[in-house]
């Protein structure tokens, strides 16, 4: 099992245990940010790596669309101010 698949598996376990869509989404976005930083530091990776990042980002976007408009604004503000 690759490290990325293992990370996705852990995230799935976290999601089931915590049942907090905002926390889950924040963790997903953090995963993608770490993957991007890894690429910037160490250079280009293989297609599976980028496919995993895209999949995670798609799942995060899906989660955000399930939030109310008010919750979406709060998440957006937190993301902007924490950048």
Describe this protein with a few key phrases:
83 residues; mainly alpha
Short description:
This protein has 83 residues and is mostly helical. It is built from 4 helices and no strands.
- Main sheet overview: none
Rg from alpha-carbon coordinates: 13 Å
End-to-end separation: 32 Å
Overall strand count: 0
Structural class, judged by helices and strands?
mainly alpha
Order of helices and strands: HHHH
Strand content: under 5%
* Number of individual domains: 1
Helical percent range? Answer: over 70%
Count of DSSP-assigned helices = 4
Low-confidence stretches: none
Shape: globular
Overall mean pLDDT stands at 82
What does this molecule look like?
With 83 residues, the chain is mainly alpha-helical. It has one domain (3-82). It is 86% helix and 0% strand. It is built from four helices and no strands. The chain has helices at residues 3-18, 21-42, 47-65, 69-82. α1 (3-18) packs antiparallel against α2 and α2 packs antiparallel against α3 (47-65). The chain is globular, with a radius of gyration of 13 Å. The relative contact order is 0.13. The mean pLDDT is 82.
What order do the helices and strands come in, and which of them pair?
Blueprint: H1 3-18, H2 21-42, H3 47-65, H4 69-82
Helix pairs in contact: 1-2, 2-3
